[in-house]
Amino acid sequence: MSQSDPPQYTWAGRFSEPTSELVKRYTASVRFDQRMWRQDIRASLAHATMLARQGIIAAADLADIERGMAQVASEIESGAFLWSIDLEDVHLNIEKRLTTLIGDAGKRLHTGRSRNDQVATDIRLYLRDAIDDIDVLLGEFQNRLLDLAEREAATPLPGFTHLQVAQPVTFGHHLLAYVEMTRRDAERFADCRRRTNRLPLGAAALAGTTYPIDRHYVAALLGFDAVCENSLDAVSDRDFTIEFCAASALLMMHLSRLSEELVLWMNPRFGFITLADRFCTGSSIMPQKRNPDVPELARGKTGRVFGHLVGLLTLMKGQPLAYNKDNQEDKEPLFDAIDTVTDTLRIFIEMIPGITANPENMRSALRQGFATATDLADYLTRKGLPFRDAHEAVGLAVRRAEELGMDLAQLSLTDLRQFSPLIDDDVFAVLTVEGSLAARNHHGATAPEQVRAAIARARSPT
Ligand code: ARG
Predict the structure, then answer these.
(1) Looking at the whole model, is its pTM more than 0.85?
(2) Among 328, 329, 330, which is best to mutate for testing ligand 1, by the most ligand atoms less than 8 A from CB?
């Protein structure tokens, strides 16, 4: 290489020819890792502060680095910053610009660290912020569900098993099931955050560094709960991204179930809910259509998050210690999982208040499904008939009602007594949907009173 050759990679000192363009494009990550620029700058400033405090760099160097980084940040913020794939990744792009701005102090910033511990730190900071955002969004999502559940605490809805009408439930109770699911999701994210929130910096390339660094000080500056205990582990594992994707996959699985129910309930054959027009789309050919695109897409996007979980597991499988370039492949799946979960929660938060229940359609489905048949069997059992015999008697009664095109509650007392002489006119109280709901009156059950109590518990801070 002659003096006039274009500038090469910062690490190119021992190389005899420039990297091929194809290799540059293949190996560069700046296109997708630039979104961690805030974390990269924040971690660099903490590192520099520690270096100055330990007397590894001069106070004047730190002052230059702080000034230069402020300038870099404002250039990135304004869009003026020129990202270059010649500089491979977010770390080298920022460091290079800093050095152009402030000279030697910029070159001292990398003392006692490596991009291996730098990138691991940036990802952890980025993911920690993302988990905090998701936590807030999950809380809002639950609040919207709770508001709707409160409004519909006593609205009878057919509860299904095997997608066949089973027993009446309240619509509020049904919605609270999703509050429970997403509360467990929130616990999983919080748990993942605890393990994410440890500082890798100081591990340097893999073995630690010869400088008298203070990792605990850097951890405190960056709000990490602790430092990673082992330098090899710190730079090489990405299990926290896998954990995050696992928690995300479960959340998306829950949201896909809710999505599927919304799609079904919006179908005119069910007609249980109406979704505000702003969440529906039309068809370019069929003028009558009103399609539930948002829940359909949420259901579909679940697949990509499952894919990212498997992708990251496969990425890490069989990697020898310590850092390998394979790890650069952690970012796109992680970022896409974060975006998908965040966007899906945001859109549900807006969509849930746009749901209107259609109680008449819910009630007519309950009637057609003989939803209070179990209540009649329980009634006979309370009067002394063994449950299996009661089950059979009610089965015959349902058959009779079906022949007559009637609901059980519409059969006359004489008709009903054909199936068991134990039936009296107090039977009609249990055959009504309201009676059936009110009778399931214990912690965790569907009675309106219990639904309201559950909502109050969910709303009270724990
Ligand atoms: N862009 C790299 C990544 O995402 C940063 C670490 C590179 N380290 C290295 N030794 N090449 O993993």
Answers:
(1) yes
(2) 328
